[in-house]
Amino acid sequence: MKGLSRKRTAAVLAAGLCLCLAPGCGGQTEENAKEELMESSLITVGFSQLGNESDWRVANTESVKETFTEENGYNLLVEDAQQKQENQITAIRNFILLEVDYIVIAPVVETGWDEVLSEAKEAGVPVIVMDRQVDVEDDSLYTAWVGSDMYAEGKLAVDWLSDYLEAQGRQEEDISIVHIQGTLGSSAQIGRTEGLDEGLKTHENWHLAAREVGEFTQAKACEVMREILEEVGDDIDVLYCENDSEAFGAMQALDEAGITYGEGGDVILISFDATEAGLRACMEGEMNVNVECNPLHGPRVEEIIRQLEAGEEPEKEEYVEETLFEPEDLTEEFISARGY
Ligand code: AHR
């Protein structure tokens, strides 16, 4: 494996190499950049981050940046794909040309990776997938994956809702649910939607009043929630947002419409991520439940690289353990100690 007989690449990269991906960009060519990758004791990691859409994503990027520092022995090249798979594919191809030691990718969607990952494999560059998953014909195209079980998160939320309604004596009542989905085709959307769909199947009295895509962003979720409110009015018992950013956007639209939510409110609000802001909103009773999705994957990815460097075989898939939070579980001390 390449990681064991690597060329060490230049520390100069960390000090500001411009890896320009745009056509006609005035930055360095791959050849120039490669020339700068001189002998060095640092390990070069090319990281293709899918975007910057949410607080969760910011924490995830930070975790990688804080881990792969020069002091820790790394040159880290970060490319933000701005939610576009084609940008991630271009970034991966550039990393291959630069002969980086490892490629780390947080894929925007699950499908469409076979070709570019085959190119990485052929070039002998190990690929570590983080957060969302890739759906490829041949799983030898990536070395390891670490992230969350998004379906388990959805199921956790749905089981919580079922118990919550029962505790309120509302288990027989007709329940109208509004669902704001994340980026279609992403693991986080697929798993959390699957969890809800199962709940809808197993509870005859649960009805889907509206389902729209909020793209995991506050702005889009606010926009679609306004549209939903125009269509369905205030007949909403449950709002299921697939991340905290969407929940904040939807809350804004509900505020504008004068509809209350959270503990004692008109609408039961379910969110995912348990970011600092999300947990604070939950502690204050604005969200009824927040299902955890841990973004701190930097150290986990580094552990995989350490194992590869030591000639060991890492676990092919590593699921991070997660839980959910209700307002009564939360304190300010707990939230500020979590680090995201
Ligand atoms: O893939 C993880 C999801 O992506 C997080 O729930 C969300 O906030 C992010 O945008």
Overview of the structural elements:
Helices cover 39% and strands 18% of the residues. The chain has helices spanning 30-36, 55-67, 85-97, 114-123, 150-167, 187-202, 218-232, 244-257, 276-283, 298-309, 332-337; strands at 43-49, 74-80, 102-105, 127-130, 144-147, 175-181, 206-213, 238-241, 268-273, 289-292, 317-319, 324-325. Strands 2-1-3-4-5-11 form a six-stranded parallel sheet, sandwiched between helices. Strand 8 (238-241), helix 8 (244-257) and strand 9 form a beta-alpha-beta unit. The two termini are 35 Å apart. Alpha-L-arabinofuranose binds at residues 53-54, 56-57, 131-132, 188, 216, 243, 245, 272-273, 293.
Quick recap of the structure?
This protein is an alpha/beta fold and 340 residues long. It is 39% helix and 18% strand. The strands form 2 sheets. Strands 2-1-3-4-5-11 form a 6-stranded parallel sheet, with helices on both faces.
